[in-house]
Amino acid sequence: MNRHALSATSxxxxxxxxxxxxxxxxxxxxxxxLVIKPGYSSTQYWKDLWHxxxxxxxxxxxxxxxxxxxxxxxxxxxxxxxxxxxxxxTVVFGTLAKLPATGVPYPLMVFAGMLPWQLFASALTxxxxxxxxxSHLISKVYFPRLLVPFGAVAVTLVDFxxxxxxxxxxxxxxxxxxxxxxxxxxxFILLALSLSLGAGLWFASFNVKYRxxxxxxxxVIQLGLYISxxxxxxxxxxxxxxxxxxxxxxxxxxxxxxWALLGGTQDxxxxxxxxxxxxxxxxxxxxxxxxxxxxxxxxxxx
Amino acid sequence: MSDIVIRVENLGKKFTLRHxxxxxxxxxxxxxxxxxxxxxxxxxxxxxxxxxxxxTREEFWxxxxxxxxxxxxxxxxxxxxxxxxxxxLLKILSRITEPSVGTARIRGKxxxxxxxxxxxxxxxxxxENIYLNASILGMTKxxxxxxxxEIVAFSEVEKFLDTPVxxxxxxxxVRLAFAVAAHLEPEILIIDEVLAVGDASFQKxxxxxxxxxxxxxxxxxxxxxxxxxxxxLCRRGVLLSKGxxxxxxxxxxxxxxxxxxxxxASLRNLAERADRTGRGRVRLSGIEISTGESFxxxxxxxxxxxxxxxxxxxxxxGLSCAFTIYDQLGQPVTYFDSTLHGLEDVVDxxxxxxxxxxxxxxxxIPGQYxxxxxxxxxxxxEDDVKGAIFFRVEQGKVRARSISGEPGYGSVAIPHHWMxxxxx
Lengths: 302, 424
Hints:
The structure holds 2 protein chains of 2 kinds.
Chain A: H1 11-19, H2 23-26, E1 33-36, H3 42-51, H4 53-68, H5 75-96, H6 106-133, H7 135-138, H8 147-174, H9 185-209, H10 216-227, H11 242-245, H12 249-261, H13 270-294, H14 298-301
Chain B: E1 4-18, H1 29-44, E2 57-71, E3 75-79, H2 86-93, E4 101-107, E5 110-113, H3 126-137, H4 141-155, H5 170-182, E6 188-192, H6 200-215, E7 219-223, H7 227-233, E8 236-241, E9 244-250, H8 251-266, E10 276-277, E11 284-290, E12 299-301, E13 306-312, E14 319-326, E15 332-337, E16 354-359, E17 367-377, E18 380-394, E19 397-398, E20 401-402
Parallel strand pairs in B: 3-7, 3-8, 5-6, 6-7, 12-18
Antiparallel strand pairs in B: 1-2, 1-4, 8-9, 10-18, 11-13, 13-16, 14-15, 14-17, 17-18, 19-20
Helix pairs in contact in B: 3-4, 3-5, 4-5
C-alpha cells in the first residue's frame, strides 16, 4: 500500500539525503549539549550574548525608527529639551541667584553639565522600564534578557550625540576651544553609562515583580537634577563638604565633563572621582548579578 | 544511528498563586513590606502560623515529573486538554521560563514559534518588520536578506511591503508573520498552535510548509488540539493532562489515549452535564448505542446493524433529533436528522419519550467515534451536546468483503465489487 501521502521515510534516510546540503546537521553529534535546569548557567549565557548581538542592533534600530516616525518635531525634540533647561537654569541660578561661573559663560557651563545629566537620566529611565516595555517579547521568545536594558542605554547615546552637536555649536559661538583634556571625555561618558546601567538593572529587575517601583525613578531623577551641580558649579559647595557631596556619583561625572570640555577653567577633584568610580563598578556588578539571578522568572511575572 | 537531541528528565514547574481578592494582579513593594512586617510581628508574638494557613498562597504544579526523549528527525505531537501544561513545557524547552525541578538536555539549535508575529511593531513597514521578526526568531541579517524574496512571495503582500503594518488587514498580518517563521531553518522546531489562524487556503499552505520542514529531517515538537494534524504530521505523540504525562508512544496511540481520556471525562451522566446549549424546554437525558441484537453493548461492527437511542426529558409537538458522527481525526463523517422524513419512519407509541435511529448496515470502518447530538423544535435548538457519547466500531464485513481500518483514508466503507482483468 502506498503510504507516501502520510508520513516521511524513516529517520536514517532523511539524514543522509539532507547531509549533502546542510553541513550543520551532520555535525550534530559534535554540538555541545545545552542543559536547562533550575538556577542559571553562566558560560552559555555570555556566549549567547555574543550570538544575539544582531538582535541588539535590531532592537535599537526599532526604537529609533519608531521614535522618529510619525513625529513632526522628531529629532528637534532631542535639541529643544536641553536648550530649554539650560535657559531656565542660566536665568535662575546665574542671573537671579548670581552663583559664580568659573571663567566661562554661564550658559556654557550649565550645558556642559546638562550633557552628562541628560545621558544619565534618560539611560536610567529607559533601562528601568525597558523590560516592561518589551514584555511581549520576553514572554514569547528566548534571548539573553540583558540585551534589553543594554539596548535602551545604547539608544540614549544617539540623543546624547545630537545634544553634543549642539554643544559644539555653542562652543564655537562663544569662541572656546577645548585642550588636550577632551581626550579624557570617553572615560566620563563610560562612567555615566555604568552608573545608569547599574542602577537601571536593579530597577528593571524590581519593576517586573513590584510594579510601583517605576514611580520611584522619576522622583530620583527630579531630585538629582537639583542636587547635582548641573545648574551651578561644584565650586559653590564649601571645602569641608566636598567629599560628602561626592557621594552623589554624578558630581564627579559632571565635574569631569566640565574639566574636559571647558579647557582648564575648572579644577578636578580626584577623590570624588575615585568614589564615583567605585560606586559605578559596584552598581554595575551587583546589578548584573541580581538581574541574572531573577531573570528566569521574568517570563512568569511580566 | 539516530541520536537523542532532547532528553527531558523529571521536569517540573511550580507556580505560587497568590489569592488577592480585591487587589490588582501585580505585587507592590508596599504590600510586600506590609506582609513581611506582619509575619515578623507574628513570629515575635509567638504565633507562628505557616504561610499556607494564611490562605493567600497556594502552590500549583503546572508540570510534574515529565520525562521523555526525542531523537533527531522525530516529529513529536504534544496533546492534551486545556491547562495540561503543554505551553509551559514548550516555554521551558525554549528557555523562556525556568523549570523548578528536573533537567532538559538539548543538542542543536532551537527555534520556537509560540506566537505569530512576535515583535512586529505597528509603526514599522512590512519590510522592516520582516528583518526585525527574523532577527528575533534567530535568523542573521544575511540569511534574511538571502531569503527575503521567498518570504515576500510566500506571504503574498508584495504590494504593501512598504506601508506600516498597522494598516494591514489581520489576514495580511498573519500571512507575513508566518512567512517569516516558515523560512527559519532550525535544527529543532517548536511550534505552539500558531496554525489556528488564517483562512483555509493559508492554513493549507502552512501545513504544506511544515510538512516540508518535517521531511527535511528536522526535529519538530508540535502542540495542537487538531487530532487530524497530529496524526498526519507527527509520528510520535505525548499526552499531557494536569501537568503529568499520561501517554508516550506513536501519534495514533497518543490520540487514542486522548480520546479515551475524553470519553472517561464524558461518562458522567448525560442528564447532569452542564456544557450544553439550547433553549432547554426538553433535554437529552441519555443515549444508548447497541447493535439491536443484544442490549447495552456499545461495541458495533462494520457492516452490522446499529441502533442509536436518544432519551428525552419530555414531549413537545414538532420535536426532532439530529446527530453527527465524528471520527478519530475530528472530522465529521455523516449526519442524521429526524426532520428529514423517509418512508420507513415510524412513530413510537411508548410512554417514555425517545428517538431511535436504526441503521441497517453500519458503513463505518473500525475505529473510535464520537457523537454530537441535538434536539430541535420547529427549527429552534432546544438542546445541543458536544461529545455526547463515544463508541467503538470493530472489524466486520460489508457484503462479505472484509474491511480493515487504516487511519487517514476516510471513515466510510462503501459497498462495491470489482471487475478484474483475466490473468493471461
